[in-house]
Design the sequence.
């Protein structure tokens, strides 16, 4: 499902993703990942964000990273947001809808920490042809998932991870603290080392400060 104008796109944590009409790629991919264990469903975030990362890397974007769980950043600014919704049937993943909003030709943003491919590379892009390229990369990473190459996917995700092994300030339950991201656990929760203790955080339990 492709749309030229997204006015009420939803992001993680209930945030809204606004896209200028006709300027960006906003679309959904529908999958039936019945081969994937519920315990491994975070790999849907991993393969999707890696596919976007692959596409932007091949375009020549500098300073690329994936901000947990699945936002893609260029030069410390958000260029892509992803929302994944799963439908379960018993203990199986029945249907998955992956919503992707990739900023392509938009030049101005209300949020100063947002950017686009056009702003990054100083040229415009033909959306239909770029969509075809991007979907081929989504397919390639999904094939890795189907082939159970979870170790490869996780290693690539960690290599691209924003703030990995760096000391930064985070916030949780209204409290700021310094910590170092050291990866994700088996459920996809963020692992953060605080002093000498490691803690894990779910998607709504921690935010990045500086």
Sequence:
């Amino acid at each position: 499902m492709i749309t030229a104008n997204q006015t009420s796109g939803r992001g993680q944590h209930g945030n809204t993703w606004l896209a200028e009409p006709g300027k960006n790629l906003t679309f959904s991919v529908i999958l039936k990942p019945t081969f994937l264990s519920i315990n491994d469903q975070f790999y849907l975030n991993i393969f999707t964000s890696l596919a976007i990362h692959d596409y932007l890397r091949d375009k020549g974007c500098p300073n690329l990273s994936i901000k947990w769980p699945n936002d893609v950043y260029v030069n410390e600014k958000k260029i892509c947001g992803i929302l994944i919704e799963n439908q379960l049937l018993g203990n199986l993943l029945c249907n998955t809808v992956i919503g992707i909003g990739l900023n392509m030709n938009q030049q101005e943003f209300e949020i100063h920490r947002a950017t686009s491919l056009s702003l990054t590379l100083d040229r415009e892009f033909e959306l239909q042809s770029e969509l075809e390229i991007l979907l081929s990369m989504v397919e390639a990473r999904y094939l890795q998932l189907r082939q159970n190459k979870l170790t490869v996917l996780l290693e690539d995700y960690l290599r691209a991870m924003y703030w990995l092994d760096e000391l930064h300030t985070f916030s949780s339950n209204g409290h700021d603290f310094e910590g170092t991201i050291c990866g994700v656990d088996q459920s996809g929760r963020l692992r953060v080392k605080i002093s000498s203790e490691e803690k894990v955080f779910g998607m709504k339990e921690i935010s990045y400060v500086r």
